[in-house]
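Re: the request from the purification team.
They wanted to know what the chain is likely to look like in 3D before they choose a buffer screen. I agreed to run a prediction and write the result into the notebook, where they can find it.
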Amino acid sequence: MARPKEFDPADAMREAMAAFWERGYHATSVNDLLSEMKLNRGSLYGTFGDKKKLFLATLAEYEKQSRETMRETLEQPGPARKAIEQWATETAMVCAGESGLRGCLGVKAAMEMAPQDKEVAEWVRAVTRARDLLVAKAVRRGQSDGEINPRLDPRVVARCLNTTLAGLKVLGTAAPTEKDVREVVGMMLRILD
């Protein structure tokens, strides 16, 4: 009979996520993870597998949380254009000032790992496709309600909005002002006209 876990895997996952988010994959050692997660090697490997599997699990959890918020905002009742504007503004404002310095775990993983790691590259592609589909669905809804230019290709609009927001997440590490971020969002949303 297996012994019950003496730690909460969800809490340990949050600690691992924070470590990877702060230092990146390569600069976070297994010893760093053991210390921050307050686990021994056996518990780490027995619950999460190796460092790479833990990293992929933290990315999956991060994206799950982020995409659920995105979905709730984009699929809320009412005008689709308003929902898209709310989602874009809320996402972008996290990039402004001190809060932006931390950057985005997903974007950081893409920059650090995707060029040389097939699993992370595939994760980035899957996340990008899923996010584009959510935005494109909202764009189509707005087009059918007459709020968004019907001549626009929803897939291209979605890709443009998501790509611009990803760029803001990178720029966030340089702490742009709230005004700078709002200006970019305003220009970005003109694509819907």
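For the purification team: The domain at 63-192 is CATH 1.10.357 (Tetracycline Repressor; domain 2).
Please add any questions underneath this entry.
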